[in-house]
Amino acid sequence: MSRVLVVEDEAHLAQGLRFNLEAEGYAAEVVGDGEAATDRLLGKKENFDVVVLDIMLPGKDGFSVVSELRAARNYVPVLMLTARGRPEDVLKGFASGADDYLAKPFDLSILLARLQGLLRRSQWIRGAASPEANETRVDGGGVGDFGTFSFGGKTIDFGVLELRSGESTIHLTLMESELLRHLVRNDGKIVSRKQILDEVWGLKEDTDTRAIDNFVVRLRRYIEDDPGNPRHLLTVRGVGYRFLAKPERG
Ligand code: CA
Prior knowledge:
Layout: E1 3-7, H1 11-23, E2 27-31, H2 34-43, E3 50-54, H3 62-71, E4 78-83, H4 87-96, E5 100-104, H5 108-129, E6 148-151, E7 154-157, E8 162-165, E9 168-171, H6 174-185, E10 190-192, H7 193-199, H8 210-223, E11 233-236, E12 240-243
Parallel strand pairs: 1-2, 1-3, 3-4, 4-5
Antiparallel strand pairs: 6-7, 7-8, 8-9, 10-12, 11-12
Helix pairs in contact: 2-3, 4-8
Bound molecules: calcium ion.
Calcium ion is lined by residues 9-10, 54, 56-57.
């Protein structure tokens, strides 16, 4: 049974969420503020599988909560609840380390689908990282589903969500890793923002695609020697992005 922590100060909404999550077979727990959320997630080393995190909370807000989690190397998948019509919240949420977002008011079935998406990905990744899993390790430039991918002196380990470069190791969030995996799979090809939203986030509706750009800025900081002058993760003006494992010289 998957464990969900709901961080929401509107008691009515929080209880409704818990009721519906439990009806769907989740074990759900509710806390009403950011302080309680970080206590619950960091203090006692509780193992939640996914967090539904409201942004507007009394005291510590949702952005601070997710930043604190990531700073403490807690990479539990986080779905943020943002106020509709505030794209800056979405960008800030992703910058803080959230994995996905949903604008309030939302449809319960969409929330459940998003949670399932996050859980499926994290279970898949965890399964791939376990020693008994039948791993396809593809090193040296190939594209492995579960294994590692090396390019430009860096190695992405999708199994443990890590990017290694020389002595340094960067931990990727679930969605950073998923976006990177999608780009690597399409090595050399142009991928549109809409395609990314659809195939990485499973979002069909018209979502603000600037959220993708924000992820790309972060990925460039990880994978490019000079993030301001990218060689691997290129912008294709008006279309989307193109990943090149082996950039052409010149
Ligand atoms: Ca709130």
